[in-house]
Structures are given as C-alpha cells and as structure tokens.
Write a structure and sequence with these properties.
By secondary structure, this protein is of the alpha/beta class. The chain is 36% helix and 13% strand. An eleven-stranded mixed sheet has the order 1-4-2-7-9-8-14-15-13-10-11, sandwiched between helices. A two-stranded antiparallel sheet has the order 3-12. β14 (456-463) and β15 (470-476) form a beta hairpin. α2 (26-44) runs antiparallel to α3 (53-68). It is globular, with a radius of gyration of 21 Å. It starts with 11 loop residues before the first helix and ends in a 12-residue tail after the last helix.
Length: 507
C-alpha cells in the first residue's frame, strides 16, 4: 500500500490532489500512516498513543463518502494529523490527554479543545497524540527535551546515533522541545502535518531541528481553550508542516478571525508568493544571537558551518529582496529583565499554579485536582515520574509557594512589553524601514518574541555535517503580521533547496 504515497515526503496538498482524483481514499491514507508509526515509533517515541484503528477507519469512510457525494469541507478533508498530547481530546476520540504525565493519565476532559473541533469540522482526522517534554517543559529545570514519563525520550529522525546521554538537555543530538513529538512525527512520516504549542521556543526549536515550517502566531489569535497551559501571556498552538501551503491551510482553520486585525481576505494561502518582490528584510548578526551554552553545548564545527551557511543565505536573499539590511541592531535578551532580576519567566512561574489548576477544573475526572496533589503523585510514583535521568520536579514545587505581588507583576510586564515591543521589535522594524527580521533558529530570538507576544516562523536551511540534524533561520515581525511571515516563508521555499527526508528512515 505504501506505493500509493511516500509518507516521508507526502504533503497534505499532494494527498488532497490524489484524494480528489480518486487515486486514493482516506481509509488507505490512515493505514499508510499507522504502518509508518508501527514501524518506527518504537525507537523514535514521537507518538504517545494512536486513536483506535476501527474508529479512524469509520471516520475516514464517512469523509470518503462525503467526497464521493461532492461535499469537500476544505483542504484538510480526509487528512490525518498528529496533535501534541497537551491538547485535550474528548474520550470519544479514544485517546488520553496526559501532557506526558501519569498524574493526568486517565483524566477525562469535558470536551475537546476548541482547536480540535476546528480541525475535525474542517475534515481533519485526529490520528494520534504526540510526545512532548513533560508538562511542556514546566516540570523541572533542565528536563531532557522530548522526555516525558508517559512517552519516554523522543528521538530525532535526523541525528546519527540518537540523543546522547552526555549531551546538554537541548544539545545538538536532541530533537528540541517541548513540541518534540509533533516535529519528529512529521519528519518521520507519521502524518503530513501536526499541531504543537509554544510558550517560548517550543514550536520553533523542534521544527527547526526537523526541517519543518512552523509559525507561532500573535498571542490570542488561536484559542487556548482546552490546552494544558503554562501562561496565558505567552502560550499559543501552531502547526508544523513540510511545506508552506499546508501551514497556511492549517492556520486558516486554527485562527479565530474575529481576533485577527489583519487576516487576508482570501486567507493566508492568498498571500503566498514565489519571489522576494515587495519584501524588505533585516538580518541579525548570527554571531551575536546564539543558543545558550547550558541548553546546547557548542560544537566548533557545527558553529562554523551554521555561520557560513547563514551568511550565504543572507547574501542570496540580499540579491533578491527589494531591500535587505544585514546586521540590524535589536534589544538584547538581558535588557528584557526588570531591574536586572525579574523576567517574564518569573511572571510565568508565578502564574503557573493558578493557570494549571484552572485547566484541571475543566476535567470531568482526573487523578489529581491541584498542584499539591500532582507533586505528591509524582513522589508516590517516583519510579516512573522521577527516574534517575530526570529526577526533579523543582518547577512544580516552586509553583506551590511562588507568587508575585500584583503591583510588581504589573511593573515587570509593563517593562517587558515596552522593551520587547516599542523599544525592541517594532523599533528595529521602523528604524530600518523593514517588514521583518531574520536570524538564526538556534538562538534565543524566541524569548524576545515570547516577551512581545508577536509571531515567529521557521525557515529550514541545511543539515549539520557532524551528526545530520537540521538547522535553519527564523523570521519575526510585529503583531498580527502573519501575512508577512507567510510571504517570507513561501519566497524562502521557492528559493532554497527542498528539505531532505531523514536518511535513516529511507528504504
């Protein structure tokens, strides 16, 4: 059956063409991807659970019948999708929502998350729940990216030899996180696209390392109802895809258009372009913006290769764009701190307990109902939840007593927003008269974007010579300018070589 499509390379757009021409049925597509998961997930651990095959086939048959009768809901009709396991799925879909924690295993959401309803109403089939850094990395400091008690250690489909135990928690051998399985699963051909979430870097980091397109939209554009949270000021769901058109189609479904001040009349697909015409780009010095060494231990060869290829990419864009300014200046991450000691992460930490427990109230039943109960559950099940490799739950314990004075919180947020927006991203855009800023994906630019609540998107570029993992650039701009980022992603896709599937999974 695999000859019908190559799961490693097939996009949702390509599958939709075959479905519409009657060369393929959704029921066949389901089995192709289930077979791929069965064959490779034992090692990759990108998927925590799949929906029961019987219900998947039943749903696919219904959608095939709709198509045969001339009813096509849109470009997602009959296409399977992976969803990060912090996005609530009602028990009728046959899958738990655990966020990677046994403390939430068996919990019963009253309803699916709003974005699940949006996806299924558009004809998508929820195939499986993807692994993640447990509780979206908000369980402990230094938690291995892609590890959860329920799902185990997600592996990169690209990295030679897998995740090295002597590596840093987000090192070169890591898939990155926290939306680890969402990225690894698409790269491994478990589905043509996926849903992940990001607070600060959790879409961008793993998508970059899996040679995928993603976009974290402006905060508030995509509903977070029914998603296990960290912080309402920074959380957002987003898609991961192998091509830009699939990402645009996903965003057209996910975005609440009543919240989008600049939603294109014809949808995000209508702004895609194959050239850099009309785009004014500023580029950040890649030597000044790097990922922190405690996250990813430097490798001299990798650093040299990345700098060389990023500079070459800048040069290519400079020759094609209407305007290009290299080495634009922008506010530093350290300037985001209030009085040199309080950051947006302190706000998120102080908000976490209340935000998380609010999610728990939306569950019909759950093994735990409070943060205190979760901490105690982990102690009682330490063999699974606090193993030797990842023995800490310090963020949860800190959340029990960590609170910020409301006046201090307001001052910190005012400083963070002003610095990241007015004195940061917006200032750079205005001073250089540019539409967007690009820079290395392996950097802390995602933290600047998290502070601002602005959108950011990935631009896949190349693969490290020393271990095979993917790397690339990111593009960021002002609030509600996702249309600009889609124009850049589509121009990028038409300019640079196509992504290469993981060699370890090619027959």
């Amino acid at each position: 059956m695999a000859f019908l499509l190559d799961p490693l390379q097939a996009t949702a757009v390509e599958i939709q063409v075959r479905l519409n021409s009657s060369r393929l049925r959704s029921v066949e597509v389901i089995d192709i991807y289930l077979k791929q998961i069965e064959e490779y997930n034992g090692y990759l651990k990108a998927v925590i659970t799949t929906a029961p095959r019987s219900s998947l086939i039943e749903h696919a048959e219904e959608l095939d019948k709709e198509r045969a009768n001339g009813k096509i809901r849109g470009p997602l009709h009959g296409i399977p999708i992976l969803v990060k396991d912090n996005v609530a799925t009602h028990t009728s879909l046959g899958m738990d929502t655990t966020a990677g924690s046994f403390a939430l295993s068996g919990s019963r959401p009253i309803a699916s998350a709003e974005i699940i309803d949006r996806l299924t109403n558009a004809g998508a089939i929820i195939l499986a729940k993807a692994n993640l850094s447990e509780l979206s990395f908000w369980k402990s400091t230094g938690l291995d990216c892609g590890w959860s008690a329920v799902g185990g250690q997600t592996q990169s489909p690209y990295v030679d030899g897998g995740y090295k135990l002597n590596d840093t928690f987000g090192g070169h051998s890591s898939i990155g996180g926290s939306s680890s399985g969402s990225a690894a699963g698409v790269a491994a051909g478990f589905a043509p696209f996926s849903i992940g979430t990001e607070t600060s870097g959790s879409l961008v980091m793993p998508a970059t390392r899996a040679a995928l397109y993603t976009m974290k939209p402006t905060i508030g554009l995509v509903s977070q109802d029914g998603i296990v949270p960290i912080s309402a000021i920074c959380d957002s769901a987003g898609g991961m895809t192998k091509n830009v058109q699939d990402l645009a189609n996903l965003m057209d479904v996910l975005v609440d258009r009543s919240k989008a001040t600049r939603f294109p009349e014809g949808g995000y697909n209508s702004v895609l372009q194959k050239t850099w015409k009309g785009l004014k780009i500023g580029a950040i010095n890649p030597e000044e913006w790097r990922i922190e060494e405690n996250i990813c231990r430097p490798n001299e060869g990798a650093t040299k290769q990345q700098l060389s290829e990023i500079r070459a990419a800048y040069k290519k864009i400079a020759a094609l764009a209407d305007y290009f300014h290299e080495d634009v200046s922008i506010v530093s991450k350290s300037e985001l701190e209030f009085e040199g000691k309080h950051s947006i992460y302190d706000v998120m930490q102080s908000d976490f307990k209340e935000t998380f427990e609010k999610y728990l109230t939306q569950l019909e039943s759950s093994p735990v109902r409070t943060m205190e109960e979760m901490v105690e559950f982990n102690k009682q099940h330490a063999d699974k939840e606090l193993p030797e490799r990842n023995p800490s739950q310090d963020k949860l314990i800190k959340a029990l007593t960590d609170s910020m004075d409301p006046k201090l919180r307001a001052r910190v947020m005012a400083h963070v927003r002003n610095t990241s927006r007015d004195q940061g991203i917006d200032k750079t855009l205005q001073e250089y008269d540019i539409d967007a800023i690009i820079g290395p994906g392996d950097s802390t630019l995602y933290a600047l974007v998290a502070a601002a609540g602005y959108p950011i998107a990935t631009l896949p570029l190349s693969y490290l010579d020393f271990n095979g993992r993917a790397f690339g650039l990111v593009a960021l701009t002002s609030a509600h300018r996702e249309d600009i980022l889609f124009r850049i992603q589509s121009a990028w896709e038409a300019t640079f070589p196509p992504r290469i599937p993981p060699k370890h999974l090619q027959g």
